[in-house]
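Notes to self, TIGR03960 family B12-binding radical SAM protein:
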Amino acid sequence: MTDRKIEILTDRVEREFLPFVRRPARYIGGEVNQIRKDLDRCELTVALCFPDVYEVAMSNTGLALMVHVLNSLDGVAAERVFAPWVDAEAILREKGLPLFSLESKASLAGFDVIGFGLTNELCYTNVLNMLDLAGLPVRSEQRTQDDPLIIAGGGMANCGEPVAEFIDLFVLGEGEEAIVELVNLLIAAKKDGRGKDEVLLEAARRFEWAYVPRFYEFAYDDTHIAAFETRREGLPTRFHNAVVNDFENAPVSTRPIVPFAEAVHERVSVEIMRGCPGRCRFCQASFCRRPIRSRSAEKVFELARASQETTGFDTVSLLSLSSADYPYLEELVARLKGYFEDKRVGLSVPSLRVDQQLHMLPKYFTSVRKSGLTIAVEAAGENLRRIVNKPLKDDDLFAAVEAAYRSGWQKLKLYFMVGLPGETLDDVKAIVDLSDRLARLRKGVDNRIAHLNITVSWFVPKPHTPLGWFAQRPRDYFEQARSLILDEKQRRRANYLRFKFHDIRRSLLESTIGRGDRRCGRVVEAAWRDGARFDLWDECFEYERWQTAFAAAGMDLEAAAQKVFEPDRILPWEHLGGPDKEYLLTHYRETLDLL
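result:
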């Protein structure tokens, strides 16, 4: 790695770019609590890229954490780069202006390291687009030793083979400590003048969480993986997620950046616990993010208090995969209520699990401004919940909701998933019945029927889960289920039930890419070159473009989504962290026994 000269583009950005974009606040930087260092005086420069627009990126806690961790290191500068919306991309290309960072308006290609956070399979085309807008080849094999090191982390790194040919190094698992170890290696290598390949080889040998795709290859037997092997002697073929063991004292920024443009979530977010004691068989996070660790109530309170004072946000959100399992929840909420009550600062506790504990929780929030209560029911029947290992009983669900109504909650949001193994159309129809009963339950409290918002998603089999071997339901099943739900709502004249459905086509694509192997990379690249951008946005998503890209590669998109993976075959993701395969197969076999 060699010293790099970063081009600062401030003048060009102000003259040629900002006056012509529809939302310049997305690109100007300079927000409250922003950290900006002198890039020329730093030993290592890192561009932290989020492959979505500013409003989404600024709500991502992982990105905020990496910005804080890296800028806390002497001699290291980290700056943010977000995907430019379509109008901004057009201007960049028209003016020949490279993609730049928010803080210094520095050309992306001038940074030592470009890091991407991968949060969803449908962001991959934006990753390629950002590399291209930086003036860099999208494929790692085409980049030179003098080009920046391209790394990727986040949840999708654990199933990242579809983008393996574009990424130099994946950081698997939790990044706070791993990124510091990697940065120290890179700084030393830069001082010694070592080349990129030499540095990547050392990282691959030293860190069990570092996956360098160029050093590995697959052999294929028709549609199956026949072998996964290393190209270099002495390298491992099984990787493990990085884990922050001392979660109590793990780094947290108490001066988060306050966005200029309104973000999706504008609130103080404090992570109270990592890991989940539940093992819902469809949930990738609960199987990949282990072990369970929690912060003390005192620590969380101090973090929330300090962060609210430096931002002025009017909501504090307590984050975890299952907040109801946080061991100090009652103590923590009482402390936060006592401090924030007269300051008119609300408290949000998402990811509450409904059981005997939850029906007691609403009373803890009676004096704090309430937002809606969200409950992930997943399936309308207890038997189907047993199949997916979500031990939720109807009695507990009704007790929790009634307690919420009596404590003043007026909004209730439910999440259901359609297409689970063992499901019938009667189970689908039961979603409307259960929702109706929960809405009418409020009549016993204040003689009103509650208005419920109900989100229905389509089951996507995920890597590193027991249900990852199962097929996804075909497209016409989901379409039939959606019609059945809406017809049943109409029959009941239940206008107080507002159903929102995920895009079926996106769910099919998510299943296909998410469980894809390295050969899927050529499909992602073909779709991007054909214009695929912002596939999570209705304005930009074109399903037919993806069907064409799959067909050109000799693949059928929907057939791949419905693929059943055989337990004795090599999975495209089994080497990339996550739990032991035999452990997952135990859950898989238990699922089969319940069907």
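- The domain at 268-594 is CATH 3.80.30.20 (pyruvate-formate lyase- activating enzyme).
- The first strand starts at residue 44 and ends at 50.
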